[in-house]
Amino acid sequence: MRLPEDFINEMNEFFSRHSYVPQEGFYESFDKEPLKGIRFSRSKIRSVEEEHQLLKDLNEDINPVSWCEGGYYVNNDTGGKEALYHAGVYYPQEPSAMLPAQVMAAKPGEIVLDLCAAPGGKACRLGESMHGEGILVANEISFERSKALLRNIERSGISGVVILNETPENIASRLPLFFDKILIDAPCSGEGMFRRDSGAVKSYMNYGPKVCVPLQESILESADKCLKEGGSIVYSTCTFCVDEDENQIARFIERHPEYHVKAHPEIKGVTHGGDDSILPGSMRIWPHLSDGDGHFCVHLIKGEEKDLKSAEEYLIKTDIKSKDRNIEAAMEMLDEVLSVKGREELLKGEFICHGTGIFKMTFAEKIFKGLKVVKTGLYVGDIKPLKSGKKVFEPSNSIALSLSREAVRDDSYLALGRDDDRLLKYLRGETISVTSDDGLKSSGTILVGIGDFPLGFAKINGQTAKNMYPKAWRLI
Length: 476
Known about the structure:
Elements: H1 5-17, E1 36-40, H2 48-57, E2 71-74, H3 83-86, E3 90-92, H4 99-104, E4 111-114, H5 121-130, E5 135-139, H6 143-156, E6 161-164, H7 168-174, E7 179-185, H8 200-206, H9 209-226, E8 227-237, H10 246-255, E9 259-261, E10 271-272, E11 283-285, E12 295-302, H11 325-335, H12 340-346, E13 350-354, E14 357-361, E15 373-376, E16 378-385, E17 391-395, H13 397-402, E18 413-416, H14 421-427, E19 432-433, E20 443-450, E21 453-461, E22 464-467
Parallel strand pairs: 4-5, 4-7, 5-6, 7-8, 18-20
Antiparallel strand pairs: 1-2, 1-3, 6-15, 8-12, 9-12, 10-11, 11-12, 13-14, 14-16, 16-17, 19-22, 20-21, 21-22
């Protein structure tokens, strides 16, 4: 491919100065086909053996990404009509992009910020690792891009999340010294994306390092104001530009000497910055040295590293109890499908109403007062008025995708196999048939899933199940 002259000059200078990275094969790598990857959900998959079986079901080889647990290379497109994708079982993701969230290693009980979160692959991984036992803030400054973030968060089924549409400066102003960990997948010149995205070269010509460097610096300064002492920042880009990568972090440490780089154990396919590198402890993925697009990642610690887990004081631990008729209607409907285990899982926290919408909160909503919130907590569903004047509760698909198979009563779960023609019909929004062999109750709300992975709700009446899969999510 034809590469920008400024980029070639930049890289020639890099290779002439730094012999620890060989130049041979670098420019040729841009003519190779970009690699595809998927990352299995840590909240839905329980073992490596299960991952391998699902890969076989998808007609894929077992080819793991060395720097990400649950990450695999794939040959085929894995979205579209694939039901496992719609069930949130995996997330299609460029292999190199899996590194930052793995490095961050979010834990239950932490308060975590993904500052530049769209389209959501990294945020979903962070939320999966937290198991709904903490607070995850996924922020996206672009409202249009925040829509994709919302959709991917909902598909993942993770809870304990708030999605913001804010500037880093506003978050720093409202939530100073609040977060335990902050992930910054910074806007960059995108040099590592040249072979994957035909628009990346044009974007580079218009928004190169001169535009990106000051923006990244501003984002880092806001992150520092948000971060607790003892907390960590993982900073990543998909560019090779030293000024956006190693030099950016070196300048940040000069301004904030309390920070230091945390070095990670050697990982196959990742070039680790040793003492002879520009920034010891930093990490790079080179497309001519490993199976991935260009990526930079560094783990910064503020002061002495601490196991903070600061979410405890903000979490709601009581069972949901309410005299609000709308919320009672929601709980009554959910009781139709939940097992004892499911009730214990779901009915913890607090249900709140915003207009006709009902949301489940596991943390205090007031924390984010004054910030532009796209979504707070887990969207439970809506209260819909009928012509008769009565109101009914319509559950959201977010709730369906947040449930495990064990959380649903046996007589309220329709497990469809991959070869069952009802599976595609359901994803298209069509009414499907049921028989006595399905072992379902004769009427009421049920969940439909592919195997043990829920997809959405349906309303059963005798031998038919009226589809409740959201219109916006249906296959065309």
